[in-house]
Amino acid sequence: MKNIGSNLGRIVIFSAFLLAFPALRASAQSQSAPDSDAAQTAQTPRVPARVTQAVDESNRITLRGNVHHLARPEFDRGAVSDSQPATHLALVLKRSDDQETALQQLLAQQQDKSSPNYHKWLTPQQFGAQFGPADSDIAAVTDWLTSRGFTNIKVSPGRTRVEFDGNIGQITSAFQTQIHHFMVNGKMHMANVSDPQIPAALTPVVRGVATLHDFRPHALSHRLGTFRRTKDTGVVKPLFTFNGCGSSTNPAPCWAVGPGDFAKIYNSPATVSGAAPGAGVTIAIVQDSNINTADYTQFRSMFGLPATPAINVVLNGPDPGIQGPDSQTDDEIEADLDTQWASAVAPGAQIDLVVSQDSQSIGIFGIDLSAIYIVDNNTAPILSESFGDCESDLGSSGEAFYSGLWEQASAQGITAILSAGDSGSAACDSSNTEDVASAGIAVSGLASTAYNVALGGTDFQNSGTTQNAPGTTSTFWNTTNGANGSFTQTSAKSYIPEWPWNDGCAAAATSSNLNTCTSTIINGDSNQNSGSFGLDLTAGGGGPSTLNTKPAYQSGITGMPSANFRQVPDVSFFAGNGTNGSFYIICQEDANAGTGSNTSSCDLNSPFADFQGVGGTSAAAPAFAGVMAMVNQKTGQRQGNANFVLYQLYKNGSASTICPSSASPASTCIFYDTVLGNNSVACQGGTPNCSNTNSSQFGVLLDPTKTNTPAFMTTTGYDNATGLGSLNISNLVNAWSGVSFTADTVTLTGPIPAPSGPITGTTISLLERESQAM
After folding, report:
1. Which residues contact 208 (CB under 8 A, 6 or more apart)?
2. In terms of Cα–Cα distance, which of 127, 143, 130, 106 is closest to 43?
3. Average pLDDT of each block of 10 consecutive residues along the chain (774 residues)?
4. What is the DSSP letter of 405?
5. Domain range for residue 674?
6. What distance in Å separates the CA atoms of residue 366 and residue 217, rounded to the nearest whole number?
C-alpha cells in the first residue's frame, strides 16, 4: 500500500468517506427512470459475507410470529396434499446493520437539498449491489433451496427476495411446518400450523418466508350499489345531486362526488405548468383483476375529461380476467375505482394498471406480484395500492416483505401510496365478515411502514352537527343540476368541512359518553341483506404500529403521540360511502342492476343514467396519487417518500397554512385540520381495548394511552383519525419546492464496502487515491 500522508490525513480521509458513502453509488434518474445499469447485478468482493458456516439441517432457528390468527384448531380441516403445487414463494432477505444504517442515511440525504445525493435515485440493480447480501450469501441461500428440490429460483434485482416454486411436501420438509386446510367464514383456506424453521446458518441474511398461507389482503372499497337518475331535459353530462340516499320511506338527497366536485372542494389546479394536471407522469396501480377498459373510457367521457392518454393495462404473467361481482374476490370494483379516480384527480397522467394473477395455493399474492413488478422494473414514479391487512395477520415475515419493498421503492424515487384501512382503529376485524371488533387496536401492515404514505379517510359535514353547524347542505351543494354539466361545472360550491369517515355508532362516542353502541343499535345494523352489515365497523383506518418504529419525519409534530411507533395515517381525503349523503362515482358495466338498467357502462342515454356509488380509503389513495402526479409534473422530478416534505411543510406551517376544517377556510390553507369526531368502532364487550367488560354487551374501542377516550379522537394537529388532515391541492403543489429538509447525521460502523461508482466532491480525490493504493 502506498503511504499518502500522516495518520491525521488518514482520519480526515476516512471521515470524508463516511459522509460521502451514499454518494458513491447514487445516480440521477428521470421520471421514467431508464434502467441503464441492468447488467450491473454482481457486487464487489468488499461486501462482507455473513453466511460463514456450512448449512446444517439439524441446527435450525424458528421464525417467530408467522402463524395467521385464523389458522386455529376449530377451523382446521386437515393436511393439504403433499403434491399440491405452491408457486411464487419467497425468502425475504435482510441487510447487515451497517448497510441498513447507510441506506437510512441515503434515504434522508435524497430529500436534503444541501446534500449531493438530493434526488439522486437508485436503479433496482444499484440498490441490490449496494444494500443486498454478498454474492456468496446469495449463493448459500439459492444452493439450499436447490438442495430442497425447489425450482424457478430467482433473485430479485434489489436483492431483497429469493423467489421459488415447489409443492406442499417440499415446503413441509424444508421449513418443518405442516400446511393445513382451514374453513373460515364459509371459505376454504390453506395455512401453516406452526412457525417455519430455517437452518441457523442462513439467519444472518434471511428475515422470513413469504407467504405460507392464502389469507390474502383485502380490497378497501365499499360498494353502495347502482344509482339511477332520470335525466333533466337538456342535460348532456350529469351533475350528481339527486334524491336516492336515505331509506325508501324517507329518501334524502345524495351529493355524489365527481371529478369536478373533488377539484372544487380541494382546490385542484385546472392546469399545471400549462398542461393538464399530471401530464407526462405515470401512476402505477396495483391490482389482481383486469378491467373492462370501456368503463374507464366512459368515466372520462361523461365527465368531460380528455380522451387521452388511454389506460395502459400491464399483464404480469397470465391474465386473471375481470374479477367481477360474481367472482371469488370481486376486485374489479377496486381496479375501476383506483384507475378512474387517479385519472379524475390528474386527468393528464398516464395510468398503468398492473395486473397479476393470484396463486391457487400458498405463495405471494397477485397484488404483491404487481407491486414487485412496479418496483423491480422501476416502471413509474408513483405507486398506488388500496389493499390492506393488519400487522398481526401479516406476521413478522409479511411485514418485513412490505417494509423492504417500500424502502426500495423510496430509494428509487417511487412514492408508494397505501390506503390506511376501512375498519377504523380495528384493522384486524373486517366489516365484510363481522359486525363489531373483537381483536383490539390494530393498523394495516401494508400501510404502517416508514417508507410509504398512508391515506386516511374523511367525510363531509354536509348539514352540520349539534357541536358545530357550519351551514346547511345548500351552503355547499347546488340543489338542482345545471343545464350543461361537465368537469368544470360542479354540484359542489366550495370546500366542505370534514370530520373522520365513520359510519358506525362509535362515531358519536366521547370521553363523557361511551354508551353509544347498544345491542339495539348493533343488532339493527346487522342485516347483511340490507347492506348495513358491518356498518358499525366501518371507518377510516388509523392508530399506532406495533412492529415499526417512529420515523424521524414524524418527530416534532403537534399532536403526535409520544410513543416511539410509526403512526398512521399521514394525510386524508374524502372517503365517505354514502352514510352521510356523499360518495364517489365510478363506472362498472357488469355491476349495473335493476329493471331497466343499461348494459352499457355509465350510459347517459335517456331515460336513465346508471352508475356505481363507492367509498373507502381505497378512493383516498389513488386521489392522492393524482396529487403527487401534479407535484412530479410541477417539479419535473420523482419525489420518493413524500412524507419527508409533507411533515416538514407541516412543521414549517402557521395559522395561515394549517387551518381548522371549517366552512370558510383561508385561501392560504395547505392543511385542513379536522377537530371533530373519531375513528373508533363498536366492539364486543370483554375483548381487548373495549370500553365494556361485559361479554354479552357492546362498547367502543378505547385509546390505550388515555383514560376512557375513544380510539382515536381528532385533535388540533396530528391525530390517528385523519393524520395531518386533508389538503388544498393547489397550495400544496405550489409550496412543495420551497420545503427544506435537513438530513440527520448517521454514523457508520464496521467494514465499509468498496466504492462501486464514480466519486465526486472536493475531498474525494484523496479518497480515490487511497482506495486505488490498497
Report:
1. 63, 66, 91, 92, 196, 395, 396, 397, 398, 400, 401
2. 130
3. 35 36 40 42 68 96 94 96 95 96 96 96 97 97 98 97 97 97 93 97 96 86 52 32 49 79 96 97 97 93 90 96 81 94 98 94 94 98 96 93 97 98 94 90 97 97 52 72 47 93 95 95 72 81 97 96 97 91 86 58 56 89 98 98 97 92 94 97 97 96 95 97 98 95 52 30 25 28
4. H
5. 219-542+569-738
6. 10
Q: Which pLDDT score is estimated for 489?
A: 57
Residue 752 lies in a domain: no
| pLDDT at residue number 758 | 29
CATH code at position 446: 3.40.50.200
Contact 104, 131 (CB under 8 A): no
Residue whose C-alpha is closest to residue 580's, from 681, 661, 530, 508: 508
Looking up cell 348493533, which residue turns up?
522
Same-domain check for residues 375 and 241:
yes
Q: Residue 617 contacts by C-beta under 8 Å, 6 or more apart in sequence?
A: 220, 386, 419, 420, 421, 422, 455, 456, 457, 501, 540, 541, 569, 575
Same structural domain, 173 and 318: no
Please check whether residue 447 lies inside any domain of the structure: yes
Packing angle of the helix pair 124-131, 391-411 (nearest 10 deg): 110
Residue where a domain stops, chosen among 214, 235, 256:
214
Cα atoms found within 13 Å of the Cα of residue 10, Cβ hemisphere only:
9
Q: Which three cell numbers stand for residue 19?
A: 459522509
Cα separation, 394 vs 391, whole angstroms? 5
Query: How far apart are alpha carbons 135 and 395 in whole angstroms?
Result: 28
Cα dihedral 469/474/476/481 (nearest 10): 160
Residue type, 771: S
Query: Phi/psi of residue 553, each to 5°?
Result: -70, -15
Single-letter code of the amino acid located at 411: A
- As a whole number of angstroms, the distance between CA 631 and CA 356 comes to 28
Q: Are residues 98 and 188 in the same domain?
A: yes
Cell numbers standing for residue 27: 445516480
Q: Report the residue count for the chain.
A: 774
Query: Which residue type is seen at 266?
Result: Y
pTM for this entry:
0.88
For 481, half-sphere exposure in the C-beta direction (CA atoms, 13 angstrom radius) is 23
- 751 located within any domain: no
Query: How many Cβ atoms from other residues are within 10 Å of residue 741's Cβ?
Result: 22
All three cell numbers of 69, joined, read: 390468527
CA dihedral sign, ordered 611, 614, 619, 622: negative
Helix (H) or strand (E) holding 163: strand 161-167
Q: Determine phi and psi for 353, rounding to 5 degrees.
A: -95, 110
How is residue 7 written as a grid cell?
A: 495518520
